[in-house]
């Protein structure tokens, strides 16, 4: 599981939310949350952002570190 994805799952669990609870809070379908957490390769940002907001997280774009 990708690092950011494991953070999403861990935060949901830390808040004591079920996938259905998170979906309701974010205004997305439970299916979207389930697919997101299972590593779906493409997600819509307009659906991801409310999920992150409900979890108290945010999306940050930063330059990649070079070795």
TrEMBL record:
SUPFAM superfamilies associated with the record: lambda repressor-like DNA-binding domains (SSF47413)
PROSITE patterns (UniProt xref): HTH_CROC1
Domain HTH cro/C1-type: 8-62
Domain of life of the source: Bacteria
Pfam hit, one: HTH_3
NCBIfam families: couple_hipB (TIGR03070)
Protein name according to UniProt: Type II toxin-antitoxin system Y4mF family antitoxin
Source species taxonomy: Bacteria, Bacillati, Actinomycetota, Actinomycetes, Micrococcales
């Amino acid at each position: 599981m990708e690092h950011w994805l494991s953070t999403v799952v861990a935060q949901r669990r830390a808040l004591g939310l079920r996938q259905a609870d998170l979906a309701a809070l974010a205004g997305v379908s439970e299916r979207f949350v389930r697919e997101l957490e299972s590593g779906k390769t493409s997600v819509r940002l307009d659906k991801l952002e409310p999920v992150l907001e409900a979890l108290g997280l945010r999306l940050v774009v930063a330059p990649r570190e070079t070795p």
